[in-house]
Amino acid sequence: MAASGILAGATRRASNKDHLKSSERVGECFGIVVVLLLTLFFLENQMQHTGFFTSRFGVTESLLFYGSALFGAVTMAARSLLGRRNAVRPLEVFGTLLWTLTSYWFLQVFPFNVAYFPDLLPGVVRFLFWWLTNETARLLLLIGVIAGPLQAIYTTWLFLAVRRMQKEEQQ
Description:
Shape: elongated
Oligomer: single chain
């Protein structure tokens, strides 16, 4: 299949799945709850001075870290309320670029000591994070810096292509 055929197929599939089912809308709400719980987990780490956030985690880092996470919840809320995927894609692009900027910034200042990440978790699940080191966290941030712009480009293209297809179908 030619590249244009692959892109046309992706556009068609995205257009066909633009309207969220009720279960998908509920899933978005569940995602919001997960984001909020994770945000509270990190806030608790910060308030209890567990060591996960180092002295390099200042106001700028807080705004980027928590702002990126909460913006993800805003995107999920918009998708759930509107019941449409394509209408929310511009927000997704902004959120992706925000995460990319955040990842890049954190690579520069690296305000974490990942060894303390599981400290507030129950003892029986801490072992699940044995593999998480500062080096692993840096690698994940680097992947975010590289993949983020690619994802933003693809999401922008998909938004425009689906919008064009839906306009053609209305005529």
